[in-house]
Write a structure and sequence with these properties.
Mean pLDDT: 94
Oligomer: single chain
Helix content: 25-40%
Radius of gyration: 25 Å
Largest sheet: 9 strands, antiparallel
Structural class: alpha+beta
Length: 587
């Protein structure tokens, strides 16, 4: 593993996976243009050495490919994370001294689990307090034209439970409001928010520290859906993954321990007695802008950093972005835990087009009727998996690639029998539901059917052309028809679906807005699932066709204000094209 961010950057440069950008570039939109081109093409990490009007360089793309993310987490491929956890779960001694001795080599897996406290640290080589703190010196990005301002996007937000003293490290975006203040994007079910609410009940401030950088496994650990286990938190996970302890140092102005090898640490507090501030809009990981919303204000009392510090950043937006590979890392890491609860799971996958919470494919070892629904229900009750909107279950096809697993499910799908609708919590950032954080759920049982489940579906045929004047583009796969329409009125898609379902070959009808390429499965599924509330926008038509209405919804259809896609303006893209070509990023 890597002692710090600098060691990781040296390794990337040695491998030809880091490009130094010496041209002057603005943190407002311009870095996004180049980073997005790198993400979409599997390009290198980018180290911007000359960020206009800022005092520090910025690096982005630390996790920009699956291979790079694996390397950041100390493995050659992400699948090895599941293998590492599986070895840990096998620490069950046989009887007697011989069994205990047999465990000793495996206990090496735990040697880095517990953080180590140190007295001095590189992150405190420079200490600024009070009015000497100026967040404007940092190259904090304004990522998209509609963003409410600059946002810190790769923070490790450290808090301590005011009652129990248990630590938590989470990744919550932070909009900068001035030299010593940011918003703190604590959603209702996040642990940081729970600590905040406890502090409110106790009538006290909540101390907060925000680390930036360090061994790249630290930022990953802040994103991981770690269950709340007494005595264990995210830096224990980081130590387990890196095989050596995370070194922590006491912060200067708050009673918290922070990573000694970080690049920067912001120290301060949130005061529950203060009114919330309006944060946003923000071009989010969904690919759409999330609207302005109220969140707590973080007051910065100190800024510490190492000499020669580098500011780490990321950009989220229309997939694929590098957060897709962090999601896949968690998916691999927690597969053995899911299999402990649901042992029939062979594998599962959250395709990038589903932006983590919109779509999960799961392959099972099927033994009895209804098992597909049982597994889907179990998954929807596992931690952050509760936010999932669509679960696709197969028994004869691996969950990767995403759309391929969906087509495999359609082979065995009988919509009148094999689709279940429900309701439950969803991500607060999901714009499709009529109510924030509460959505419909959809389960597709695409497993091979047993005798008790009735006759099997016949082999799917490719649907014929969609002959309808409102269809602007279309594409078909066996059993699946995707069409786009120019959405103009309520009820338009239901009327269209009645016509198109007349073709018996259409088992699954996907409807998107005009301008989406129906022949591009990733773009199609991202759009359809992002704009889908299964309670309102999914139904079985004519007893044989599952319809997913992925069009933008109108107010007359019970929709909240519909957001725009996070896109860069053409002027910015045109201005950056010469530099993108110079860096080998196309454009």
């Amino acid at each position: 593993m890597f002692e710090n961010l600098g060691a990781y950057l040296n390794e990337l440069e040695r491998r030809g996976e880091l490009v130094r950008v010496r041209d002057e570039v603005s943190a407002e939109l311009e870095i996004t243009a180049l980073a997005d081109a790198a993400f979409k093409s599997g390009g290198p990490a980018l180290l911007f050495e000359n960020v206009r009007d800022r005092d520090f360089p910025l690096v982005i793309g630390l996790y920009g490919t699956p291979e790079r993310t694996a390397r950041a987490l100390g493995v050659d491929r992400l699948d090895e994370l599941a293998e590492k956890v599986q070895r840990l779960l096998e620490l069950k001694p046989a009887g007697g001294l011989a069994g205990a001795l047999a465990l000793l080599p495996k206990l090496g897996e735990l040697k880095g689990l517990f953080p180590r406290k140190v007295r001095r640290a590189p992150v405190q080589e420079v200490v600024l307090t009070g009015e000497a703190v100026d967040l404007g010196r940092l190259p904090v990005q304004t990522c998209w034209p509609g963003d409410g301002g600059p946002f810190v996007t790769l923070p490790q937000v450290i808090t301590k439970d005011p009652e129990t003293g248990e630590y938590n490290v989470g990744m919550y975006r932070m909009q900068v409001f001035g030299p010593r203040a940011t918003a703190m994007h604590w959603q209702l079910y996040k642990t940081g928010r729970k600590h905040f609410e406890k502090a409110r009940k106790l009538g006290k401030r909540l101390e907060v520290a925000v680390a930036l950088g360090g061994d790249p496994v630290l930022a990953y650990a802040a994103t991981a859906p770690l269950p709340e286990l007494p005595g264990l938190y995210e830096y224990h996970l980081a130590g387990f993954l890196r095989g050596r302890p995370v070194e922590l140092v006491k912060a200067k102005t708050v009673d918290l321990w922070v990573p000694a090898e970080a690049e920067f640490v912001l120290e301060g507090y949130v005061d529950p007695a203060e009114p919330f501030v309006t944060e946003g809009p923000f071009g989010d990981h969904t690919g759409f802008y999330t609207p302005p919303s109220p969140y707590p204000l973080f007051h910065v009392t100190a800024l510490t950093h190492r000499r020669g510090a580098v500011y780490p950043s990321t950009v989220v937006g229309p997939p694929p972005m590098e957060d897709a590979w962090l999601i896949e890392a968690s998916e691999r890491l927690f597969l053995p835990a899911a299999q402990l609860v649901l042992p029939e799971i062979r594998d599962y996958h959250m395709p990038p087009a589903g932006v983590a919470h919109n779509w999960v494919n799961v392959e099972i070892e099927k033994e009895y009727a209804g098992q597909g629904f049982k597994v889907a229900s179990g998954l929807l009750g596992l931690g952050q998996m509760m936010s999932t909107k669509v679960v696709v279950v197969t028994s004869d096809a691996p969950p990767k690639p995403g759309f391929g697993a969906l087509l495999a499910a359609v082979r065995h799908l009988r919509p009148e029998h094999d689709v279940v609708f429900g309701k439950g919590p969803t991500d607060e950032l999901d714009h499709a539901p009529a109510q924030v954080g509460f959505s419909g759920k959809l389960v597709l049982d695409g497993t091979v059917k047993l005798e008790a489940e009735g006759p099997a579906a016949p082999p799917p045929a490719r649907p014929g052309p969609a002959e309808h004047p409102e269809v602007t583009a279309q594409h078909a796969w066996p059993g699946v028809l995707a069409v786009t329409v120019e959405k103009r009125r309520p009820g338009q898609v239901r009327a269209l679906a009645r016509r198109l379902a007349a073709d018996p070959a259409v088992r699954l009808l996907l409807v998107a807005d005009d301008g989406i390429d129906p022949a591009d499965p990733d773009a199609l599924m991202w759009w359809v699932l992002a704009n889908l509330d299964p309670a309102r926008d999914a139904w079985v038509e004519a007893g044989r066709t599952l319809v997913l209405d992925g069009t933008r919804k109108l107010p007359e259809e019970g929709a909240r204000p519909w957001p725009e896609v996070a896109r860069l303006d053409e002027a910015t893209l045109e201005r950056l094209r010469p530099l993108a070509r110079k860096l080998g990023l196309g454009g």
